[in-house]
Amino acid sequence: MFTVPAILLVTVMMYIPFIMSGYYSLTECNGIAKEPVFVGLDNFKNIFTGGSGYMGTVWFTVKYTIGFVIFANVISLLLAVALTQKFKFVNVFRGIFFIPHIMSMTIVGFIWKFIFTQGFARLYEMTGWSFWNESWLGSPDLAFYSVVFVGICQALGFYIVLYIAGLQAVPADVPEAAAVDGAGKIQRFFKVTLPLLGPSFTTCIFMSLTNSLNVFDIILALTKGGPGGVAYSATLQIYRDAFTNNQYGVGSAESMVYFVFVLVVTQLVLKLFSSREADL
Fold first, then answer.
1. In the beta sheet, which residues pair with residue 28?
2. Among 13, 32, 101, 258, which residue has the fewest nearby CB atoms (within 10 Å)?
3. Cβ proximity of 116 and 136 under 8 Å
4. 53-279, what's its fold?
5. Burial of 44: CB neighbours in 10 Å, binned 0-12, 13-18, 19+
């Protein structure tokens, strides 16, 4: 009986809207007409034939996800290894890296937007280096890298904490035994410590994957999908079609397609890393 309130809340807030979204995906609904017009699978045909441009946003999200997952985990692991060493002010550095994570992603996006525009322009005046004078948010070639960079900077602290917890859970006698057997520091890290971080890898990869597939607010704050729509994520496209263009049927169809896509990708990745973790 104690679970009934939670079940009711989840049902009202998640399951019922999900079912309604499935129904509206088969209709032409603008939110104004009293009754939606049933159109069958036309919305889905429009998506897969490229009429809505939605598949292009999915491809952008896939590229963002690949870059985010790889670099966020590699950088956070290296920083976690450094921050588990004993040196002065180590706790201060841990706090510095974690602060951006506790801030709103929208706020972080607006801060970096100011840095890319005003901050870099000031650095260019001081140094004269053309690197600072690039249009990091206005160039179609650079906007993608700027968005990935900001997303990684905002999320690093969270993954660093998870990797530090994993590194501290490694039994001290195992690396020591490897050292006695003649293994160097690099060998101990790659042959002993890294395999023992299997659970931490699984958690961080899965969470970074789901977070990057749902990227929305960073892009909205930085570029609003520009320039020229090259930085539109799948979730931002769903938001635009449903709540800006009032095409609720199209937006619902896109959300259903993306739901299936995310479900398949996350389950495959989770199964892959779970099996590797079991082997280790």
1. 37
2. 32
3. yes
4. MetI-like fold (1.10.3720)
5. middle
